[in-house]
UniProtKB/TrEMBL annotation:
One of its GO terms (molecular function) is ligase activity. This is O-antigen ligase family protein. It is a multi-pass membrane protein. It is found in: Membrane. It comes from Rheinheimera muenzenbergensis. The lineage of its organism: Bacteria, Pseudomonadati, Pseudomonadota, Gammaproteobacteria, Chromatiales.
Length: 444
């Protein structure tokens, strides 16, 4: 076996391990934690350089990769311009934080570049999706056990737990968002395993197939989904839970119309998640508390809407070129009217914060980049014959819809682990559409 082959085979596993690691140290939302994350990505880039040098590997293995990477590359370059303040009219109110955000964006760019280079087959994509499912299951199990045990401080990093599960994250809504993204891909994988043809055979054959199902990947994935749903419910995140089930319903409905031959158990699977997971398991683990929080939500008791309203003058002032990446906390206090009940270093609305910090034109470009991924997911479900790619497209679309909804009231893309997972899912949307057909793989 050559060195080039060894590195190529190792890279999908290594990239998956990075995704598993990212949420463990407080969601990588501390300087030392994201420095470790960046070091791991840099190590991956170094391994790739060795592999590319020995095998004359091209910088981009396909033309579509350049189009996909163009928007995040432009974003990172623009953040750097803001930090350096060399171009008249493009500057930052907080150059230090803009430089840090430019660095983080650069490493996100490098990571999805590596994904595009190495996740070029069904088996490699399965390795990566498996890592995401494992990560979500571990986070859900850890957060649920601590919450149900009633511990005041978590064993890991001694984070104050309160009455909501938060895994190894500091903020429970980031935990809920992370689980929802992992859940989406797990459900997509289950759907890719479902048969499209009606079962034919005698009772003995049906029983044999039923037993095979119990021992198959579908059952293990279904158990992982149950564990993650428990964690999601215990997070008590209102929008995290609401956006997940809305995204599941919308994606399932679209899949029924997009698939040429929808899996015959697609509807029962979706219904089982709503009935079994939401109603039965939810009743056991406190979905009523989430419902109560939703019912008690009011504009009088919430201050997030005040933050949004008080931020509008900032948007009017900086709509074209932005105030600088990471500068919201620096510029917002001058526009804050009165004292809030909480501490707001973010806008609790990623769309608003991106528009204020980067300007409306670049924010719209990033939005178009995300919406294009949604369109590719639809096209993959409509046109591709590889069942796993179609399942990944289902999961990626569901994750994308969840993020579109959840980001209206939170700042999930400001958390490094969540941002890394989300851009990886956007990359999977592209890969599921563009990767070549796998010879011999089960098709429909």
């Amino acid at each position: 076996m050559t060195t080039q082959t060894s590195i190529s085979r190792f890279m999908p596993l290594f990239l998956g391990l990075i995704l598993i690691w990212a949420p463990i140290p407080l969601g990588s939302n501390r300087i030392w934690a994201w420095s470790v994350l960046h070091s791991l990505i840099a190590l991956g880039v170094g391994l790739h350089c060795v592999n590319a040098f020995q095998s004359a590997m091209p910088l981009l293995r396909a033309r579509w990769i350049a189009r996909f990477l163009a928007v995040p590359a432009l974003t990172a370059a623009y953040m750097l311009l803001q930090a350096m303040q060399l171009v008249p009219g493009i500057s930052s109110a907080d150059p230090y934080h803009s430089l840090m955000l430019a660095q983080r964006s650069l490493f996100l760019l490098l990571f999805i570049w590596l994904l595009c280079q190495y996740i070029d087959s069904v088996s490699r994509m399965q390795t990566l999706v498996l890592a995401i499912v494992i990560s979500g299951t571990l986070q859900a199990a850890y957060g649920s056990m601590i919450n149900l045990a009633g511990l005041e401080l978590s064993p890991l990093f001694a984070v104050a737990e309160g009455d909501r599960a938060r895994g190894s994250f500091v903020y429970q809504n980031h935990f809920a968002n992370y689980l929802a993204l992992c859940l989406s891909l797990a459900i997509g994988w289950i759907i890719s395993e479902l048969a499209t043809e009606k079962h034919r055979g005698n009772t003995k054959a049906k029983l044999r197939d039923a037993l095979g199902t119990l021992l198959s990947t579908k059952m293990l994935l279904r158990l992982a989904v149950v564990v993650m749903v428990i964690g999601l419910i215990l997070s008590r995140s209102r929008m995290g839970n609401s956006a997940f089930f809305v995204a599941l319903a919308v994606t399932a409905l679209l899949a029924i119309f997009c698939y040429k031959k929808p899996p015959r158990l697609l509807k029962p699977l979706v219904l089982s998640i709503f009935v079994l997971d939401l109603i039965i398991i939810g009743a056991m683990f406190g979905v009523e508390k989430v419902k109560q929080r939703l019912e008690e939500t009011s504009f009088a008791g919430e201050t997030r809407d005040e933050v949004v309203r008080h931020s509008m003058p900032l948007l009017e002032q900086h709509w074209l070129t932005g105030s600088g990446a990471g500068s919201f906390y620096t510029v917002f206090p001058a526009y804050q009217q009165g004292v809030y009940t909480g501490f707001y270093d973010h806008a609790h609305n990623d769309y608003l914060q991106f528009a204020i910090e980067l300007g409306v034109p670049l924010t719209l470009l990033l939005g178009a980049w995300q919406l294009y991924a949604l369109w590719l997911c639809l096209q993959t479900m409509r046109r591709r014959n590889t069942r796993f790619y179609k399942g990944v497209a289902f999961g990626a679309m569901m994750a994308n819809l969840h993020m579109l909804l959840h980001n209206t009231v939170d700042f999930n893309l400001q958390a490094p682990a969540n941002a890394l997972l989300f851009v990886s899912i956007l990359a999977l949307s592209q890969l599921a559409y563009h990767n070549s057909q796998q010879p011999g793989f089960l098709q429909q």
